[in-house]
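To assess whether the prediction recovers the assembly geometry, we first specified each molecular entity separately, as shown.
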Amino acid sequence: MAGYGFMGAAHSHAWRTAPHFFRLPRAPQMTAIAGRDTDAVRKAAEELGWDSAETGWRRLIERPDIDLVDICTPGDTHAEIAIAALQAGKHVLCEKPLANSVAEAESMAVAAEQAAARGVFAMCGYSYRRTPALALAKRLVEQGRLGVIRQVRAQYLQDWLSDENGPMTWRLDKSKAGSGALGDIGAHIIDAAQWIVGQEITGVSALMETFVAERPISGELVGLGGHGDVSHDTPRGAVTVDDAVIFSARFARGPIGVFEATRFALGRKNAMRLEVNGSAGSLAFDYEDMNYLKVYDQGDEAQTRGFHRIMVTEPEHPYASHWWPTGHGLGYEHGFTHQVVDLVEAIADGRQPTPSFADALQVQRVLSAVEASAGDDSRWTALA
Amino acid sequence: MAGYGFMGAAHSHAWRTAPHFFRLPRAPQMTAIAGRDTDAVRKAAEELGWDSAETGWRRLIERPDIDLVDICTPGDTHAEIAIAALQAGKHVLCEKPLANSVAEAESMAVAAEQAAARGVFAMCGYSYRRTPALALAKRLVEQGRLGVIRQVRAQYLQDWLSDENGPMTWRLDKSKAGSGALGDIGAHIIDAAQWIVGQEITGVSALMETFVAERPISGELVGLGGHGDVSHDTPRGAVTVDDAVIFSARFARGPIGVFEATRFALGRKNAMRLEVNGSAGSLAFDYEDMNYLKVYDQGDEAQTRGFHRIMVTEPEHPYASHWWPTGHGLGYEHGFTHQVVDLVEAIADGRQPTPSFADALQVQRVLSAVEASAGDDSRWTALA
Amino acid sequence: MAGYGFMGAAHSHAWRTAPHFFRLPRAPQMTAIAGRDTDAVRKAAEELGWDSAETGWRRLIERPDIDLVDICTPGDTHAEIAIAALQAGKHVLCEKPLANSVAEAESMAVAAEQAAARGVFAMCGYSYRRTPALALAKRLVEQGRLGVIRQVRAQYLQDWLSDENGPMTWRLDKSKAGSGALGDIGAHIIDAAQWIVGQEITGVSALMETFVAERPISGELVGLGGHGDVSHDTPRGAVTVDDAVIFSARFARGPIGVFEATRFALGRKNAMRLEVNGSAGSLAFDYEDMNYLKVYDQGDEAQTRGFHRIMVTEPEHPYASHWWPTGHGLGYEHGFTHQVVDLVEAIADGRQPTPSFADALQVQRVLSAVEASAGDDSRWTALA
Amino acid sequence: MAGYGFMGAAHSHAWRTAPHFFRLPRAPQMTAIAGRDTDAVRKAAEELGWDSAETGWRRLIERPDIDLVDICTPGDTHAEIAIAALQAGKHVLCEKPLANSVAEAESMAVAAEQAAARGVFAMCGYSYRRTPALALAKRLVEQGRLGVIRQVRAQYLQDWLSDENGPMTWRLDKSKAGSGALGDIGAHIIDAAQWIVGQEITGVSALMETFVAERPISGELVGLGGHGDVSHDTPRGAVTVDDAVIFSARFARGPIGVFEATRFALGRKNAMRLEVNGSAGSLAFDYEDMNYLKVYDQGDEAQTRGFHRIMVTEPEHPYASHWWPTGHGLGYEHGFTHQVVDLVEAIADGRQPTPSFADALQVQRVLSAVEASAGDDSRWTALA
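The predicted structure of the complete assembly is given in tokenized form:
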């Protein structure tokens, strides 16, 4: 594994945990973790449960005892690592968003396609697909239970930037992060919506906004304390990414959608919400109640028609039978564990795991069209 | 009162009921109801509790014993009736939307301004302002409890057109209805959002969609039964209005907003939803739970911070002390009763009631800009 | 109508409103209202919309132009008024609980039975039966949708006595009120549970508690202000009724139930909650969300099984088609309006309206058994 | 660890996971797992991640490289294993309920007290105490935020026995399981209520019920298939435990409580619900929404008073800062991980971990009083 931040912890937990709850066709070995700082990566290896530590991701690619590289580094490094790993014959799991530009994403998709021809596979880490309630949503749409899909409304609401004196970070610097709410959380709802509806977005009209243009440069850099101490003299850095983005979209075979991603929705902590309306039914999901899917079935008898609040922990539900008795909820990390399970099974079967790099490239194209439209008076922008 | 459809019933109930629960400065007399069909209007007078029936609205304006005209007719007649009534020195309550075009609305606003100078007042019936929970929302924003407002998300979701074999009606004919979801329900969330935020919308980017282009012409007209009998031979009429509309907006002093109105959100019956995020708090409302307002207060102690689910039936809440003990919910018609109370009190005080025709004209301008943007590739459209 | 407190207002609204929304077989005339204080009853007549005022309820019985007496006075007067009215050939609607003792209730039931033989009918005002969601619950149980009923859990939670400095009132004096939470709100859940399950309670085991034994005698009586001014010197009166009651019960054909009524559940304003579990399904209701019924149907497909959240405002639902379009909620007073409708229809048809005095007597017997058990170490107490 | 059923899996996951998210003072080694069947225990060791397998729990006590014994076997074996382990100087974590009788529990508490004097500690696995939302509830009561506690209502509702043709199992045989819903799930709400309120239950009045008296003996034993095949000829075994139990209770310093545990509440999967009302506030919890605590604070401003829906994933909340960013929910197994953390920290500090065997013995006494009351006409039964 390359990288050991928040995502590194989630991925490590998944690799450690998957074999104890699922019968995997191959037994994962947590061989090595790599990072730039020798001491830090050693410490991470110990804490996260890896057998060895390497300085620099290239060592992972050189080692013959490594079959798969799990990329949890920032987005600007994804392309280089992933392409090198694939070319070296190693399977790749790469965190989302796939890259910071469409061009990078395209080269990654090409590399992935070439590797797949040799039986070497790449997958992008849109882990929310593995939330049981969303996997059930996907299944119900595939079964035709919603009829013809007409509308999608998707929101990803967080609030961690609401405080205007919150510190400047690399995530707010476009040169490093690519974009703000759009790529970080907007990418998730784009991927989830396209995947569940089973159709690609073909065009968008967008509005992007930065509410707080400058933020105090954090104490660690300039010798100040917490943002309680922020004063008019505190040096401030320019926020160069979007705080919030709104866009409308059309899908390939008719549905329209409305999307919003923001880090300023005070009180919403991780409200990834998705509603889909079809001609025969509807579904609604909110990640803040991640164990539930709400489903409306027009086929129900009229007097008892209403959204079913389904606790997605039954043996009939995706992934659920491997865990606890019915009604005992799952948490955030289970999506990562399921992701590892699906990846290992696909590799063992010689099948392409999903989302492929090509799927993730499509998300990247939507992100790019959103930025283009927002920069052009919200004009309708078809996907390239 | 002119008109006796669904709105006529709601308004009549309000005039009948208000004096029994509120101490009004003037006692309303339900003098006369007018309509085109002599027999039908007589029947309506009896059912709805009016003292007399008149054929044609002009009779209301001629009668000296009438001080106020309540207009519940379709939108294409509003301008003529309202202007005539105001010029005849009668106060006016006019259902929303104010008119079917900006031009008509402008002439109505001019007439209202002239009448007001003579102590004759006009008000537009955006009755949702009188829902206690929304009135509380307005008050909290005015008190500064949300800090600087940053974002608004507003939805009005219904589902009564989901069935593609539902019949053609005048509401789906642009020449009569002006627009579809936009003017019917979109107008409500535009008015509510501007009123609660206390800022006008200055520009929009919009997408409009008609999912079902043709509908069977109803049995009453062509001798067929219910839409269970619809066949390929059933004559169909063209739907010329929007089934759904999505738009983004900017408000005068900084906030951005996202709006959606649809009649195709299967399972949502009357989901007028409004969320407002500020720098110090947030609020959320859903008309399907109309007695509740949810409020998040960043000033709460960290360990117990969370949306307060406020049942808006306490003596401290708008309108509530006039009704039942705490916790005994109110319903849809109470908004109309409160509207009558506020109107009568303003007239008695010689104050302009709100929303004024000028306020309602502003909503009309937003509707018009939405249509213009949707017809121009979603391009950003500033309000005239 | 006799009495003009909170219940008088609700009943008057119902009599005024019913004919405008329902096609009644007979047109109610609001002939006269009676009370002890001549001035107060005149004022009430005007505010509530009655044609005349009478001093003393006996005048209602003497007047030949009165066909029905609606009794909204305190419980200790019910028996005398109701029996006199029935014997005088007047139909009776009597507020709940039927009486303050089983003996009084028995004599009322006898009078009602005798009157019914002459086509004169009596009904007790357990108005919650007319809440559409609860009427739907009753219908579903009757249709067998829940299978064999096994369990009932019923709560009626209010909080208006939580403040220990809240004033002493007649409601807390056993000699006037009969009992506390038990008769006031406990009676409602007993009636609703027996009615919906369709079985009588046959025995109980109970615990009653008074949390605040003494309360300040209110300022109006002793010249003090609001309870902000309560001091150690404030005279206090003894609370002689229950603040809260808990009991378990058995129903005639097998189900068990658990009941709780309290005025000390801080934050619960009018939480009349009912859950019923059967072998084929369950239902759940909370009056604080009175427009909804939640239904679980074991017959649903396994993957989408979950409580349906039914908004009980569809044409297929009890009473709903007479009001607003789907999704537009009803409020507390609608139950009273429906009660009047059902009563007038039953009288016009020559049918016994329900709940009859015999039904209400059965509730009284349960109340009595609860008190007996609570006074005897919670020992199981069969109904007499 | 002794035992490797469902609880064994949960405990193993906790031991594996705790060191990766918490900085433990001692590093747990998963030395050995024991069971009766040599092959099965070997397989379990591999699946669950234990270094070695032993046939029979006595081997764990003999091994000098084992410091702590984690008991996940059925209740009738707890006393023997725990006492032997403690006497051998090994710390003990024992699953709940502590034992199948008060007598056994008493001997365990004595052994634990003697061991504690030597620095060897015992803890009982009431893991729900480690759910962050319930730990927050406990903290709020301790801080006095609810004022004087007056009422507790606790329910534990499941539905896995609703189908009357569900098979007979050892859990329905009193000789093996001790009791039914009472000991299995009722014990959890008794422990949680006493712990959060900070007071012991002093007396109870109870009703117990068995709805299905006989069940088919499962196919595995008698050569039949699933219960789809159940016929009148299928051999049936007697259910000798309670399907549901209801009881009222008094706590030491004044509060009253109402408790219900059932396996027949169709649609409720794991609804462990707890509500506490005090003089200054209330709290409500439902395990089916385990990441939330609802808190009502009478000290809030009147116009915005309402239950706070707190998502218990903030850094200020118990345990939460060790996991994911705010708003990313936790699941069932986290309680077990936290239990291990608290246990290891207490041992390292030489402190008694809680709940102690003495705490668990108190729960046992309540269970015993409930059974006694239910067997004696629900008569009030003080705790021994």
